[in-house]
Design goal:
single chain, about 350 residues, alpha/beta, 3-stranded antiparallel sheet
Length: about 350
């Protein structure tokens, strides 16, 4: 399958001043931290060398599927666009459940959603806690952008600095700091300010470093507030691993194995659509009410993701990477092999890859 993608403009370079002010207004009036700080290579869909196989799967054991919905986080675009593919997989009742943390682990553990798209580090911590989840696949790679002021030029410069965020929400900051040997408990200070004031607080010097994703990262870049220390989409090692993992509630998987595979296949087909036709995908999100952001800002946010990653990366590598960082920091106790054995099941992904001709 050869998927060709047209050359697109880089939205963060070409947003107009009017767009910038409009986005800043949206960000300051109600974009929540969980909605914009997410954690998720080439944007193209890639090509396959294998020959797709024809497989007849049994019908789904249930025709209902519950997926997360957050209209301020286009990172969830594959889950929204999956409703174009789910009916063909036998799902007649697709339900979207409001998700403050954009499809996170808590809703999966509580059984409020069937499949979500949490940040890889949070999934790793949940696996260590033996939470009832099953990690099925990676979706897109890291999409965070770490900014710093003039006193921060590298990750190592974060030692002794003030970081925007909360110490108890350490599953994101911990891997970054542990990667360069900084103790999150003793060697950094956290500054928790109202997210609606993050731009003003950054300008006022309330903190030395902060992490956001597009479209808010576009505001900082365009307005030249701080400078980029790490772009998770392009800077290794972060760019080489998944930021978001398709993860299911364990009870759902055990009771509905055929439905699990069919739902995952629909999500991954939708992910391909996001990679191949981001303009069409962004338009669909806006027209269907899945994005509360204007079309151009939704597209900018989607261009901050790498949706081809599911075809290119190994999700097991991502789990090992984060498990080692989090173990070094004392946040997990299990070894990577123990976590993978406990919480991951790649059978559905491997079958789907063979069927779709993904090498």
């Amino acid at each position: 399958m050869n998927m060709h993608r047209r050359t697109l403009r880089d939205a963060h370079d070409e947003l107009s001043r009017r767009d910038l002010l409009r986005l800043a207004g949206l960000g300051l009036s109600g974009l929540g931290l969980a909605a914009l700080v997410g954690c998720g290579s080439d944007d193209g869909a890639g090509s396959a060398t294998a020959t797709p196989s024809i497989v007849v799967d049994p019908p789904p054991e249930t025709t209902t599927i519950r997926l997360p919905r957050n209209t301020l986080n286009p990172r969830l675009a594959p889950f929204f666009l999956a409703d174009q593919f789910l009916p063909a997989e036998g799902f007649t009742n697709v339900q979207y459940v409001n998700s403050p943390d954009a499809g996170g682990v808590q809703q999966l553990v509580a059984g409020e959603i069937d499949i979500g798209m949490p940040f890889a580090a949070r999934v790793t911590v949940a696996a260590d806690a033996a939470d009832p989840i099953v990690i099925l696949a990676g979706v897109n790679n890291s999409s965070f952008v770490l900014f710093g002021n003039d006193g921060v030029r590298s990750l190592r410069d974060l030692k002794g600095k003030r970081l925007y965020g909360k110490r108890d929400d350490d599953t994101f900051w911990t891997p970054l700091l542990a990667y360069v040997g900084i103790d999150i408990e003793r060697e950094v200070e956290f500054v928790d300010v109202n997210f609606n004031e993050i731009v003003q607080q950054a300008l006022a010097g309330a903190f030395d470093a902060w992490v956001v994703t597009r479209p808010l990262a576009t505001v900082f870049r365009t307005a030249k507030i701080g400078h980029v220390i790490v772009d998770g989409k392009t800077d290794p090692p972060w760019s080489q691993y998944f930021g978001s993992m398709a993860t299911a509630n364990r009870d759902f998987v055990e009771k509905h194995p055929a439905a699990t595979k069919r739902a995952l296949r629909a999500i991954l087909k939708a992910t391909d659509l996001c990679a191949k036709e981001p303009e069409r995908a962004a338009r669909y999100l806006v027209d269907k009410g899945h994005s509360a952001l204007p079309y151009d800002i939704t597209l900018d946010a989607m261009n901050g993701q790498s949706y081809a990653a599911w075809r290119e990366f190994n999700p097991e590598d991502t789990m090992r990477f984060y498990a080692l960082r989090l173990k070094d920091a004392g946040l997990v106790k299990s070894t990577p092999d123990e976590l993978i054995a406990r919480a991951a099941d790649w059978r559905y992904l491997n079958e789907i890859k063979r069927e779709l001709g993904v090498a």
